[in-house]
Amino acid sequence: MINVISAIAMFCSLYGNYLVVKKKIIGFHIWILSNILWVVVNIIGVFNLSQVIMFIVYAILNFYGIYEWKNKNTQ
Which sign, positive or negative, has the C-alpha torsion 23, 13, 55, 39? Predict the structure, then answer.
């Protein structure tokens, strides 16, 4: 099960990155999903607190990216 979640998280991470490079805001949403999945992987698999913290920070940065993107497009 952990391998399936890891594979989905990896795909979402790469696809989210691709979409952001293509200037699609949905990429940030997919990145948030991948960060949540990576947190799950690092909690139910071999617990790794530093990676859990890192992926939570990444998710916060993605929310900030969405906020900035929307503010930039409304000006």
Answer: positive
Tell me the residue ranges of DSSP E strands in 1-75.
none
List the domain boundaries for the chain: 2-74
Q: CA distances (Å), 75 to each of 2, 19, 42, 70, in order?
A: 43, 23, 39, 9
Reading the chain (75 residues) residue by residue, the pLDDT tens digits are 999 999 999 999 999 999 999 999 999 999 999 999 999 999 999 999 999 999 999 999 999 999 999 998 766
Give which of 37, 43, 46, 27 is closest to 4, Cα–Cα. Answer: 37
pTM of the model: 0.89
The structure tokens listed for 39 are: 């947190």
